[in-house]
Write a structure and sequence with these properties.
Blueprint (H helix, E strand, L loop, with lengths): L9 H14 L4 H15 L5 H13 L4 H41 L4 H30 L3 H15 L4 H18 L17 H21 L4 H15 L7 H10 L6 H11 L9 H8 L6 H23 L3 H4 L3 H30 L3 H15 L5 H15 L1
Helix pairs in contact: 1-4, 2-4, 3-4, 4-11, 4-12, 4-13, 5-11, 5-15, 5-16, 5-17, 6-7, 6-15, 7-15, 8-9, 8-13, 9-10, 9-13, 10-15, 11-12, 12-13, 16-17
Length: 395
């Protein structure tokens, strides 16, 4: 706690993060930059060294990294209520917008509406391709990790079960432990944990307990089935952001709860709103054809997908400084990160590419979007608007 300048209030935290939740476009990496500028440089809630270490922790854990960083900053600033305030402020704007889109998506009929949906699907292709490209360069820079990513993609493409994705992540960790132990590690900083070890153990127990118990309860009611789908996706996604796409696709499209067109249109719309990409869960919960849906489904989606990341963060904070110095732990995470690159690359092909790119004109729109994002650094919101207009023009 020595990194604090002073103690704040939950209301202060809520105001600051609500402002960022309304203005933070650009995805998780951009969010990390917004936090640093606002809270490290301008407000001095935490120093730069502690902030870098906090970001490293959240990148290591499953769940939405930028939302975990936000929760941690609120926690450090104003305790547990501050952490909740940070999560609510940063998450609520995009969740409301995507829930509203879920209610209006059904009205997108006719050539214009279908064109908008098709354009959003092509934008999703471009954005996920950008994510695969950037993650591959960062997380698979050597032949060991590139090979792990390749094998992971092949396993996912040749299988249709959710268990295959979990198994691929586990195999990636094992391969990393065996093949990546000699890779030079990044420098390690230090972070004072504002969470006691007792609270950490309780949080980890809850994380694993829910992961085991909720599937067993899914036969009791549809609500547990819906919560289970979101909780498993949030608990098993490493890397955050776009990596959750294939997990949610298996959970909702493969089961028939959400049509592929509706899924991809919502995913495209999620690129146009500020805040965390995981609020896509609110849209899915609202449009799912399993009860409860609409507002209740949106609430279940938000709680289900964010809760595991918060629990595992609270459970890891007290032990992080010791654990991350272990050579084996670092090697395992290198393998897991490489595996999720392969998992995301497989999702780029199926369902994104196969369901969206049908003609040379479709490919052209997706290619232009990819170049705008990667070479021109165009904001995602602009690419989404251009993609939607291009889809209407094609229609």
């Amino acid at each position: 706690m020595d990194t604090l300048k002073d103690i704040g209030s939950p209301w202060e935290v809520l105001r600051v993060f609500l402002k960022m939740g309304l203005t933070s476009f650009g995805g998780p990496i951009a969010h990390i930059g917004y936090y640093r500028e606002e809270l490290v440089v301008r407000r001095r809630w935490i120093d730069d060294a502690a902030y870098i270490d906090l970001v490293a922790l959240c990148q290591f854990l499953p769940g939405p990294a930028s939302s975990q960083v936000a929760f941690s900053l609120g926690l450090i600033r104003a305790g547990y209520w501050g952490g909740l305030a940070a999560w609510v402020g940063f998450t609520l704007p995009s969740a409301i917008l995507l829930t509203a889109f879920a209610y209006g998506a059904g009205a997108l009929g006719g050539s214009i509406g279908l064109g908008v949906i098709h354009g959003l699907k092509l934008v999703a292709v471009a954005i996920v391709a950008q994510a695969v490209w950037g993650m591959a360069r960062t997380l698979c820079p050597d032949r060991q990790r590139a090979s792990i990513a390749c094998v992971a993609a092949m396993v996912i493409l040749l299988s249709t079960s959710f268990a295959a994705q979990v198994g691929t992540i586990v195999m990636g960790g094992i391969a990393g432990f065996l093949l990546c132990r000699t890779i030079e590690a990044n420098p390690i900083g230090s972070l004072g944990a504002p969470v006691s070890r007792r609270v950490g153990i309780v949080a980890l127990t809850a994380f694993f307990g829910l992961l085991a118990a909720v599937p067993a309860l899914s036969g009791i009611s549809k609500s547990f089935q819906l919560f289970d789908a979101f909780y498993r996706s949030g608990a098993l996604v490493f890397g955050g952001g776009h990596v959750v796409l294939p997990l949610l696709s298996k959970a909702f499209v493969t089961t028939g709860w959400v049509s592929e067109d509706a899924f991809l249109a919502g995913y495209g719309a999620a690129q146009a709103v500020p805040g965390p990409l995981f609020t896509f869960a609110a849209y899915l919960g609202a449009v799912a054809n399993i009860s409860p849906n609409q507002l209740a489904g949106a609430a279940i989606g938000l709680i289900g997908i964010f809760l595991p990341g918060i629990l595992v963060l609270l459970g890891t904070l007290p032990f992080w400084n010791v654990f991350r110095r272990l050579v084996g732990a670092q090697a395992i995470m290198r393998g897991i990160n490489a595996a999720v690159v392969g998992l995301l690359g497989a999702a780029l092909y199926n369902p994104l590419w196969l369901s969206s790119v049908k003609t040379s004109a479709d490919f052209s729109i997706a290619l232009v979007g990819f170049v705008l994002l990667t070479a021109w650094r165009t904001p995602a919101l602009i690419v989404v608007i251009l993609g939607a207009l291009s889809g209407v023009a094609l229609g």
